[in-house]
Amino acid sequence: MPPSSLASKEKAYQQYTIAVHLLEVTFPMTKDNKLFLGIAHNLFNSVESTMTAILQYERDLQLVSGFNDADFQSKFNTFRSKSVRRNQISGSTISLIQELKEIVDLHQKSPMVFQYELKTLTARDITQYIHQAKEFLDTMERIMRLK
């Protein structure tokens, strides 16, 4: 596995582990709903790195080209148009990536935490995101093993 895809893969797992720790260890101790935003940021970083690892791996196999590693939209467009169908990635994964991106973007634009266009994060939402992110990590493992 090439170094760039390996580094992205490691970052994906690291960010996922941080999100799970925040939800399962820190949140029960603090009961602070503001942690959900930090968890969402870590999950977004994880799914973006997962997507990047897949694309970098496929680029090394010359299956994809023409995306900018540093530009989310470029990666996302390439991923959606080239990798999703070939790797049988579910539409719910694409929705997860878009939803987490929206949460992160809304937070960055928002003058006050949790006042972003009526978007509310709940423990149930975060748990669902974590489950979906884990499925995406499993998909990445399957893709990088098979090719």
Tags for this entry?
single chain; 147 residues; mainly alpha; Four Helix Bundle (Hemerythrin (Met), subunit A); 0% strand
Characterise this structure.
With 147 residues, the protein is mainly alpha-helical. The protein has 5 helices and no strands. The chain has helices spanning 3-30, 35-60, 72-86, 91-109, 123-146. The longest helix is centred in the N-terminal third of the chain and has 28 residues, at 3-30. 32% of the residues are buried.
Query: Pairing-aware structural class of the strands and helices?
Result: mainly alpha
Number of domains: 1
What is the third-level CATH name, the topology? Four Helix Bundle (Hemerythrin (Met), subunit A)
CATH level-4 homologous superfamily: Nucleotidyltransferases  domain 2
Using the CA coordinates, give the radius of gyration: 16 Å
Could you name the ranges where pLDDT drops below 50 across 5 or more consecutive residues? 114-118
N-C termini distance? 10 Å
Mean pLDDT across all amino acids = 90
* CATH level 1 class label: Mainly Alpha
The fraction of residues assigned to DSSP E strands is under 5%
Shape assignment: globular
Q: How many strand elements?
A: 0
Provide the helix percentage: over 70%
Q: How many individual helices? A: 5
CATH architecture annotation name: Up-down Bundle
- Helix-strand sequence: HHHHH
Largest sheet: none
